[in-house]
Each structure stands twice: as structure tokens, then as C-alpha cells.
Amino acid sequence: MNRESRLETAIRAAVAAGDILIRHYHEKVDATCKESLRDIVTEIDRMAESCVIDIIRGARSDESIITEERGSVSGSGENGFWLVDALDGTVNFVNHIPFFCVSIAYIEDRQPVLGAVYNPMANDLYYGAEGIGVFRNQSPIKVRNRSGSESLFAVAFSGKNYDPERRKDEFGIMADINDSSRGCLRTGSAAMNLAFLAEGRLGGCWGKANKFWDIAAGLLLVRLAGASLRYSCVDTEKMLVSYAASNPFAWDFLNDRVGAIL
Amino acid sequence: MKKNAKKKLVVYGAGAIGRGYLPWVFDPEVYDYFYVENNLRLAARLRERKQFTTHKTVNGRYLSKIVGIAECFESGQEAEVLGKADLVVTAVGPRNMLPLAERLRPVRAPIICCENDASIPSLMNAATGNDNFVFAIPDVITSNSAPPELLAQDDLSVVTEDGVCFIDKKVEGVAASGRFVDTLELNTQWLAKLYIHNTPHCIAAYLGALIGVRYLHEALKNKNAAEIVSGAMAEMEQMLMKRYRLEEGFVRWYGHKEIQRFRNDLLFDPIHRVAREPFRKLAQNDRLIGAAQQCLGAGIIPSNLLLGIMAAFCYQDGNDPDHNIKYLINALRPYDFLRIIIRLNPHEALFALLHAEWNNNLQILKELKDE
Question: Are residues B239 and B263 in the same domain?
């Protein structure tokens, strides 16, 4: 299986799942809490996820898939696997805030090597792969070089590994960044934060204990788009990853502030 | 004229127009040529050779000119000579103009934009705060290469047609063998160039790519491809007469001239040069989607143009800046490709036509190869 055809599969699945999200966006949707008040799932998440699984299985039936809701859908293929979050930004979705996306990545040797992030409300398709490049819709994208104080940042806190004391420190860092720059947003979608950084809209973003499926595709996008990037696995079993990424001009600014807690 | 009395001409882009055509317009006996070229290999070769040969096809044979160059800079190293330039000409492609704004801001000499986009001068004037950018239309086809026998004599050879360069009258004092024309005439020439030349020209290239030929004139040897190109040209002519009130005699003459040019088998114009950057050509106001919208607005169903658009969707060249088109066309349903990538509204006529004829047009294009 080559990288190009896998990228095509990721693109096809992301847009198909995005269409499902759009179809149900205006409906009243019941949400079920998982590990925290902000960690919720809906029937629409599951429908979109099934769509992604069906497309990947249809194209490459022997490859393993790990999804947010269903967990592992095992295959017997090569050493890589797919990581899928069919709805990143569920809280936004159920509150009819038009900022959410589908995120699909393929992982080899523990690194994302291709990915697609689709924001169906804006019709923005971000995609990229090693050796191919990184794009939004028609166009190549790259980070925009701006200093930390001139950059807008975003953060993604996870409900996983929640610790009230540590969270106070994290909000302290968020406040410091917010007051030393153009601001620090909590958008509700880690994948979109990373896509926006890759495109140059955001100057940087960071996250604490995010699920790897939320951010794998986004991490690839920012790396290919020229961002400075650091990430580490904080819980292998739960696939929790902390990360910081920014345009190179803002890296010292961001890393100095968040480096200690990553 | 004594050598030290020559004017200084800075040319951005040593490609097809920059190297092949400009020396026929801006006489190297009058100007010292300073090139600025992004392609490092080409820049190094020009610096090393200090000259190249441009061949003009006239009445079925080549008229050759050896052009000496004063210098070829890599991009960003030209500041000193730029300050002393008597004239600057750009031929770098519309996408590459805006990044030049900072460097061109201090220039007070006229800057003639030989770019395939009439909006570039006003864009650059706005970006720099200056008013010295003017438009020119090289009404000519120029290859960025040459046939093997000419390349054997000089590996920097390029071939151009004999044509006219229409230059904005605002810079009439510039020494050039082009035609200085007013805004109205420039606009007429641009409309003809954009729709009667550019549109069918790139369609011929996309059809050639599908057929699997290397040079544009080879694409026109395929009877079905030639019919599509001629058909698209007729649609453009009709549109220009209906929508812009261009005179029938002019558009028919122009179209006939262009078909002859496309068939010029001395030119060896590579398909990949003409077809490059399909997304630029598929932009809302450009020669494919823009042209189709113009036709529909004039009540013309441009069936041949729609085939050309489909051929552009299918263009697959791994070395092209828009090589990502192939992943998108392979991955997405036609509905999603048109909506998300081409940015057409599903409720508009062009979307409906392209979508409805998708499979049929694909089949027609597949059969081109079988001729």
C-alpha cells in the first residue's frame, strides 16, 4: 500500500464523515458523558466514525484502525495503523457552535506520516503526507512567522488525567500566554488548532494530555508546514500526548512557558 | 551604440518569455540584460555561459539571435543593479509576483509586467504604493525549450514565435519594438488573449497530457482533441462577441491565428509548461472556470470547454506545483470535488453541468487515446 493511495483514503473518509456531521448539525443531539463533563459522545460521533471505518476497511481491509469511540478495529496489515477522531469538537457540535472537524491520520513507527483534517462547516480540507506536502483545499500551506507577542495561540485541555491542582498551573500558563501575546484561545478542537497553525492563522498551540487521535493528523500538518514542534506521550496505555507547536519565530516564547509541564 | 551607453534592463524570470521573447522586443543592442532567476541551476548556467540563443520561427524556419547577458542573479541578489535599472520587466508567473513587492518598492524605473494576468499591475501598485507597474501582453507562444538539434548547439536555446507585444501606452518612451496601446485596446487584446488564446491553449495541453504526448503541436494531431480545442475556441469567440461586443472579424481572425500557432511544429512547446498549475487556471475568474461562467452568462452552453475543464481536473504531473490535484480528484466524489476544491456552489448552473456530464465527459476523454 503506498502513501499516496492511503492519503486518498484519508481524504475520502474525512469528507464523507464531515458530510454526516453537516447533515445532523442542526438537530438536537443527546450527549453522554465519558470521563469528564467536557468529554462527551453522541450518536453522530458514532455514525461518522462508522463511516470512516467502512471507507478505510473498504479500501484496505487488512489495516488496523484505532478510533475514539470504538477503540481498536484490528487488522493484520503492515506495521502502521489508522487513528481516527470522527468528530473533534463534540461539545461545540452539540451546542451548534460551527467549529469542529474530522481528523484521520496514519501512523508508522509511532509517528503520523499522513493525515487529513476536514472542517465541514467551512469546507476546509487540510491534508498532507511525508514526501507529498501539506495543503488546504487547492493550496500548499505553511506557518506564518511572527514573534510570540504578535501571535495568537490556542490551547486544548483534555478531560483525561484530570488533576485540579495541576489544572490551576495550566490555567496560570494560559493566562500568562494570553496576556503576553495576541491571546490564547480555547477553541474546543485541538485538531483545528493545529490545522490553523499549519495554515498561519494561529501562531502557536499547545495541549496537555490530549488523546493521540485528536491531534495525530494535526501534528503531521504542522510539522510539514514548518512549525517548531515538541510532543511526548504522557500515558502510553491511554495514548495521551502533550505537545507544543508554533511558528519558529514564536517557539522560544511558547516553549519557555509550557516546556516544564509537557 | 557604444557598449557603455547601453541602458540597464533587469528581467525577472529567465524562462520562456524572459529568455525567448523579450530579446526580440527589448533590443540587446540597446539594453544590457540582467536576469534574476529562481531556478538555481539555470541561473548558474546562464552566469557561466554569459549568453544564450533564442530562435524565432518565421515563415517555417528559425531566425536566431545570440543574446549576451551582463549578469544572472539568484533571487534576492539583484538589489544594487535594481537601483540603477532603466527598465524592469517581469515574466515570472502571476503567483510569483506578490513576493517581489518588497524588492520592487524602491524602484522608480518603469516595471512592465509580462504576466498572464491583467490584474497584476494594479495589485503590485497597491502592494508597493507605487504607480510604475504597467501591463504588457506578449501575444506570442514561446517554448521554454527547443528541439534537440538546437539544444545540441546551445543547451540554453529557446524557441519563440513571431508575435506582437502590446504594451501600456503609459510607458511609451521606453525603447521597445512592441506596440504601445491605450487602455481600451490593451483590454481588447487581453480579452482575446485570455479567452481565445489561453483557454484553448491550456485545453490543448490537458488533452495532450491525457493522450500522452510531449509537445503541444502533437496534441493537435489527434483529430478528436483538435475538434475539442477548435470547439472551445468557437465558444470563446461567440462569448466575446455576445458579452464584450468584440468585432466578429477580429475574433475570427484571432482564433484562426491561434490554431495555426498551436499547430506550429517548429515550436516544441512542452505540454507540462502550458498545463502547469491547473488550479490557477481553474480559479473563479481565470481561463477555464471563469471562461465557462462567462459563456453561461452569455447564454452559451460551452460543451467543449467543459471537456477541457474535465481534462484539467484529470491532469496528473508529480512535478507540477499543483500535483495535489491528483489526490483530490482520485479521492473525492465529483460533488465534493466541485464543491470543496473548485469552490462551485451546487445550486449554480456550471456546477450542475459539470456534475451531470462528469461520467460522460470522462468517457469521451478516455476515448481520445484510442483514436
Answer: yes
Give the pLDDT of residue B289: 98
Q: State how far the Cα of A231 lies from the Cα of A85, in Å rounded to an integer.
A: 19
Are the Cβ atoms of B331 and A7 closer than 8 angstroms? yes
Of B156, B181, B206, which one is at a domain's C-terminal end?
A: B181
Alpha carbons B158 and A58: distance in angstroms, whole number: 50
| A137, closest residue in chain B (CA to CA) | B341
- Count the domains in chain B: 2
CA distance A82 to B304: 42
Among B324, B335, B341, B342, the residue to mutate for chain A (most A Cβ within 10 A): B324
Does residue B1 surpass a pLDDT of 60?
A: no
A11 vs B: CB within 8 A: yes
Instruction: Give the model's pLDDT for residue A162.
Output: 66
In chain B, positions 240-279, which contact chain A (CB-CB < 8 Å)?
279
Q: Which residues contact A162 (CB under 8 A, 6 or more apart)?
A: A35, A36
Note the pLDDT tens digit of each residue in A243-258: 999 999 999 999 999 9
- Three-state SS at B301: coil
Closest to A217 (Cα-Cα) out of A68, A112, A101: A112
CA atoms within 13 A on the CB side of A259: 9
Residues B146-196: pLDDT tens digits? Answer: 888 889 999 999 999 888 999 999 999 999 999 999 999 999 999 999 999
> Is B117 or A199 the better-scoring residue by pLDDT?
A199
Quick one: closest CA in A to B326, which residue?
A8
User: Could you tell me which CATH number the domain at A3-140 has?
Assistant: 3.30.540.10
Which tens digits make up the pLDDT trace of B236-256? 999 999 999 999 999 999 999
Residues within 8 A of B (CB atoms), A 207-246 only:
none
Percent of chain B with pLDDT over 70: 99
Average pLDDT, chain B: 94
- Asked whether residue B85 falls in the same domain as residue B173, the answer is yes
Q: Which grid cell is B311?
A: 481534462
Residue B33 has pLDDT above 90, yes or no: yes
Where is the domain boundary, B181, B214, B229? Answer: B181
What pLDDT, on the 0 to 100 scale, is given for residue B5? 82
Show residues of chain A in contact with B330, CB under 8 Å.
8
In this structure, of A58-67, A228-237, B276-285, the range with the lowest mean pLDDT score is A58-67
- Please tell me whether residues B219 and B309 are part of one structural domain: yes
Domain that holds residue B30: 3-181
- Nearest chain A residue to B333 by CA: give it: A12
Domain regions of chain A by residue span: 3-140, 152-261
Asked if B322 reaches chain A (Cβ–Cβ under 8 Å), the answer is yes
State whether B112 and B25 are in the same domain. Answer: yes
CATH for A152-261? 3.40.190.80
Q: Indicate whether B16 and B149 sit together in one domain.
A: yes
Residues of B in contact with A135 (CB under 8 A): 324
B321: chain A residues, CB-CB within 8 Å: 140
Residues B158 and B247 in one domain: no
Its ipTM equals 0.89
Q: Do A8 and B330 touch (CB under 8 A)?
A: yes
The CATH number of the domain holding residue B358 is 1.10.1040.10
pLDDT of residue A32: 75
Query: What is the spatial distance between Cα B315 and Cα B369, in angstroms, rounded to a whole number?
Result: 15
Minimum-distance CB partner of A133 among B324, B325, B331: B324
Put simply, whether A4 touches B (Cβ < 8 Å) is yes
Cell of A29: 443531539
Q: Do A12 and B327 touch (CB under 8 A)?
A: no
B160 class by beta-carbon count within 10 Å (0-12 exposed, 13-18 middle, 19+ buried): buried
Predicted TM-score (pTM) of the model is 0.86
